[in-house]
């Protein structure tokens, strides 16, 4: 099975540099163009299935990438970005001044500190692992498109490659690019990371 990974296009929150997990964020003109360019790059891939985050920015990207392909889009909360609670749509510079104790704790131990009112990394990792477990039932699929978020996709790659969850920082998913993982039984191979070439 080939897993084609796409991060949503650029959003207003990306431009502002703020934490954006579940908060509404819309694609910028550049983000729309990024998704449309991916439609061209991936137009020859016969997707059997498309699975997408529930969040609007990912669904918008998926619709643009698929364009006129007649493939239903399945959404799942397991692919939603990490929820930052009270930190949603706030910049880290402001948090360092306005939420000093919590911010310092998170910087010192981000794997175990939970943003106020948000989702901890351990819970976030658990649901990404849950999504990975669902792939065992999808082995009949040949080409699956997964449209999600930076945090989800980088963790997804690290876990599929049997790396520690903290290894997610080694995999940055650029917007307007596609990545490819081949999955055979329980063995994953990262074939492509951040391509802007035709597939």
Secondary structure: helix percent: 25-40%
Biggest sheet: strand arrangement: 3-2-4-1-5-6
Query: Structural class of the secondary structure composition?
Result: alpha/beta
User: How many β-strands, per DSSP?
Assistant: 6
Cα-atom Rg, whole angstroms? 17 Å
The topology string of helices and strands comes to: EHHEHEHHHEHEE
Q: Can you tell me the overall shape?
A: globular
Low-confidence stretches: none
What summary fits the major beta sheet? Answer: 6 strands, mixed
What integer is the average pLDDT? Answer: 96
Number of helices: 7
Strand content: 15-25%
Gist of the model:
It contains seven helices and six strands; from the N terminus they run βααβαβαααβαββ. With about 200 residues, the protein is an alpha/beta fold.
């Amino acid at each position: 099975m080939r897993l084609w990974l796409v991060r949503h296009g650029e959003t207003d929150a990306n431009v502002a540099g703020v934490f954006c997990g579940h908060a509404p964020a819309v694609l910028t003109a550049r983000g729309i163009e990024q998704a449309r360019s991916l439609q061209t790059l991936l137009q020859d891939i016969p997707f059997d299935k498309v699975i997408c985050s529930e969040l609007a920015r990912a669904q918008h990207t998926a619709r643009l990438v698929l364009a006129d392909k007649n493939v239903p889009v399945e959404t799942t909360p397991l692919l939603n970005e990490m929820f930052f609670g009270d930190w949603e749509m706030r910049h880290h510079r402001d948090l360092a001044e306005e939420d000093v104790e919590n911010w310092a704790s998170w910087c010192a131990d981000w794997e175990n500190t939970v943003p106020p009112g948000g989702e901890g990394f351990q819970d976030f990792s658990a649901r990404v692992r849950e999504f990975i477990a669902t792939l065992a039932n999808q082995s009949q699929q040949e080409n699956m498109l997964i449209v999600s978020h930076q945090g989800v996709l980088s963790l997804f790659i690290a876990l599929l490659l049997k790396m520690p969850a903290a290894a997610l920082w080694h995999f940055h998913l650029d917007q307007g690019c596609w990545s490819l993982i081949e999955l055979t039984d329980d063995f994953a191979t990262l074939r492509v990371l951040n391509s802007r070439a035709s597939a």
